[in-house]
């Protein structure tokens, strides 16, 4: 089986092909996952110049689309490359590119097209008829959890015949590591030592998490929370909340933005990972935590339910409910699997190899073949 994955979003013009992988580390993640299952994978990447790179046995074709004046012209260029590759399945990254995929299908009508969601949103009402046309013959669409398709199915963009696949959006290259060494390097401590990684905004709901932490300290007096974050529109409110509550002052540590390697060490140092997210297309921080052996205490949302196997590996709590979070933290602190067991769950369910097996099943299905 030969699968072609396609990225319609062009990288910055000044980057050579080899440099794009450092700029977009995720460029190789899904191809690597799919290739790990024994599938031949090629990637077509829209770009400003034509180049070819072979990386981890995946063939990357950077396609210069600068001379294509119309959507049909671009579709022809992509279709010509696909025809040369003799691909069996086209895997399109992003539901925002239905029109581009539709243009390709004009030239290759028999090529099955499988779309993958990347935190995409359904169109406004006046664009929905176009989207329905573009996706009418989609062979399938992959979401981290099938429930995430609901915004698209409810407005008829995806019809009842569209096959849905529940596949994690990506995986993670973090490793288990040694907890004691990580704590010595990061200075993190606590019983439990809890990590938060996420923006300080309404969607991540840090204020509810702080309320839950405050309540949990009655049962967990040695609890310490270590917060790494990027964008922080709620930073002043978070600081005020921490400073104004003696249950939080001195035990909530606001680390700010950390390098990715430092995030790995933070996760390796942590006993628990906490999230208050109200919505996620996947949950990369959760993947990173489980890869490092930290037990997740996360909200009861579709993507987190899928990644934790409905809470089989994690404690789930209702978004916005601080009391439920406190209960979940106490349960997790008193009765959780070992770090090695958490990592084994990652290897079996969320690793690149595990995600690759899911993609192999999806590709086989859309080709109408029997699973090997």
Chain-wise SSE layout:
Elements lengths: L1 E6 L9 H7 L5 H7 L4 E8 L3 E5 L2 E7 L6 H15 L3 E5 L4 H10 L5 E4 L11 H8 L4 E4 L6 H4 L10 E3 L12 H8 L6 E5 L8 H11 L7 E5 L6 H9 L8 E5 L3 H10 L2 E3 L9 H8 L3 E5 L2 H6 L7 E3 L4 H13 L4 H11 L2 H15 L6
Parallel strand pairs: 1-2, 1-5, 2-4, 5-6, 6-7, 7-8, 9-10, 9-12, 10-11, 12-13, 13-14
Antiparallel strand pairs: 3-4
Please explain how this structure is put together.
This protein has 15 helices and 14 strands. It is α/β, with parallel strands linked by helices and 372 residues long. It folds into 2 domains: 2-171 and 353-366, Glycogen Phosphorylase B (Rossmann fold); 179-350, 3-Layer(aba) Sandwich (Rossmann fold). It has an 8-stranded mixed β-sheet with strand order 3-4-2-1-5-6-7-8, with helices on both faces. Helix 2 packs across helix 15, helix 3 (71-85) packs across helix 4 and helix 4 crosses helix 5 (128-135). The longest helix is centred in the N-terminal third of the chain and has 15 residues, at 71-85. The protein is elongated, with a radius of gyration of 22 Å.
Structure described in brief:
Helix content is 38%, strand content 18%. It contains 15 helices and 14 strands.
Please tell me the CATH architecture of the largest domain by its name. 3-Layer(aba) Sandwich
Please, how many helices?
Answer: 15
| CATH fold assignment of the largest domain | Rossmann fold
| Rg measurement, Å | 22 Å
Strand content: 15-25%
Series of secondary-structure elements, N-terminal to C-terminal: EHHEEEHEHEHEHEHEHEHEHEHEHEHHH
Spatial arrangement of strands, main beta sheet: 3-4-2-1-5-6-7-8
State the CATH class of the largest domain. Answer: Alpha Beta
Residue share in helix: 25-40%
> In angstroms, what separates the terminal alpha carbons?
12 Å
The total of beta strands comes to 14
Question: Mind telling me the CATH superfamily name of the largest domain?
Answer: Glycogen Phosphorylase B
């Amino acid at each position: 089986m030969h699968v072609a994955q396609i990225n319609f979003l062009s990288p910055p013009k000044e980057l050579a092909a080899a440099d794009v992988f450092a700029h977009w580390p995720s460029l190789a993640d899904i191809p690597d996952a799919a290739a790990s299952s024994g599938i031949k994978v090629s990637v077509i990447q829209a770009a400003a110049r034509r180049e070819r790179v072979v990386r981890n046995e995946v063939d990357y074709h950077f396609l210069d689309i600068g001379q294509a004046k119309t959507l049909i012209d671009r579709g022809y260029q992509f279709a010509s490359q696909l025809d040369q590759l003799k691909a069996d399945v086209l895997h399109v990254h992003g539901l925002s590119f239905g029109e581009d995929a539709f243009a390709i299908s004009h030239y290759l009508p028999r090529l099955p097209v499988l779309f993958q969601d990347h935190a995409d949103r359904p169109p406004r009402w006046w664009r929905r008829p176009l989207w329905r046309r573009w996706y009418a013959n989609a062979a399938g669409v992959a979401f981290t959890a099938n429930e995430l398709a609901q915004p698209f199915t409810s407005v008829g963009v995806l019809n009842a015949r569209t096959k849905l696949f529940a596949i994690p959006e990506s995986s993670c290259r973090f490793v288990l590591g040694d907890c004691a060494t990580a704590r010595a390097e990061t200075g993190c401590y606590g019983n439990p030592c809890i990590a938060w990684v996420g923006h300080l905004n309404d969607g991540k709901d840090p204020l509810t998490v702080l309320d839950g932490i405050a309540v949990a300290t009655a049962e967990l007096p040695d609890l310490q929370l270590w917060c790494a974050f990027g964008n922080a529109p709620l930073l002043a409110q978070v600081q005020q909340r921490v400073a104004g509550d003696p249950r939080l002052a001195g035990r909530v540590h606001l680390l700010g933005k950390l390098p990715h390697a430092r995030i790995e060490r933070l996760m390796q140092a942590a006993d628990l990972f906490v999230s208050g997210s109200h919505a996620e297309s996947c949950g990369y921080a959760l993947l990173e935590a489980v890869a490092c052996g930290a037990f997740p205490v996360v909200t009861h949302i579709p993507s987190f339910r899928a990644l934790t196997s409905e809470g089989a590996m994690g404690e789930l709590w209702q978004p916005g409910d601080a009391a439920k979070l406190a209960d979940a933290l106490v349960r997790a602190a008193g009765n959780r699997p070992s770090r090695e067991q958490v990592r084994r769950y990652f290897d079996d369910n969320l690793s690149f190899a595990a995600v690759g097996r899911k993609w192999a099943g999806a590709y086989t299905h859309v080709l109408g073949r029997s699973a090997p």
